[in-house]
Amino acid sequence: MVDVGLLVLRVVLGVIFAAHGAQKLFGAFGGPGLKGTAGFHEQLGIKPPFAMAVLAGLAEFAGGILVAVGFLTPLAAVALIVTMAVATFAVHIKNGFFSMNGGYEFNLALGAMALTLLLTGAGAYSLDAAAGILW
Predict the structure, then answer these.
(1) Does the pLDDT of residue 71 top 90, yes or no?
(2) Where are the alpha helices (DSSP H) in the chain?
(3) Which structural domain, as residue segments, surrounds residue 85?
C-alpha cells in the first residue's frame, strides 16, 4: 500500500504544481502569464524578473508533470522545494502561517510533500521504477 500512497501523493502534488506553472507560463486557469508573473517578480525585487518568471513557471509546470508520472523524481522534487522556499520567503512569510491571510501554510505543505518524495523516491508505480532508475 505504500506504493499506492506514493502514487496518490505524486499525482495530486504534480497536478497542483503543473496547474500553477501553467498559470505563470501560459496564463491558463486565469493566471497572469509570463508578463504578469514577471511584473510581480519585479515588484518583489526579484531580478531579472522575466528570466525568474520563466524559471519559476518551468519548475512548477515541468516539475509537476515529472512528479506526477514519477520520472526523474528527485530532481523534480528539488526544483519544487526550491520554488516553494523562494515563494515562502519572498512573498508569504511576512503574512504569518495561515494561507487565508496570505501566509505560508500552503507553500509549506507543498514543499513538505515534495521533500517526502525526495526522501522516499517515487515508488513502484512510476516511470523511474519502470526504467530501473534507482535513486
Answers:
(1) yes
(2) 2-26, 33-44, 49-69, 73-87, 105-120, 127-130
(3) 2-130
Write down how long the chain is: 135
d(CA 8, CA 68): 9
Q: Residue 14: inside a domain, yes or no?
A: yes
Q: Domain count for the chain, please give it.
A: 1
CA–CA separation, 76 and 19 (whole Å): 15
Q: Please state the rounded mean pLDDT for residues 21-32.
A: 98
State the Cα–Cα distance between residues 56 and 8, nearest whole angstrom. Answer: 24
In a domain, 102, yes or no: yes
Grid coordinates in use for 77?
A: 522534487
**The C-alpha cell that represents 124 in the structure block:** 513502484
CA dihedral 73, 109, 61, 81 (to 10 degrees): -60
Distance CA 73, CA 121 (A): 7
* Residue 32 DSSP SS3: coil
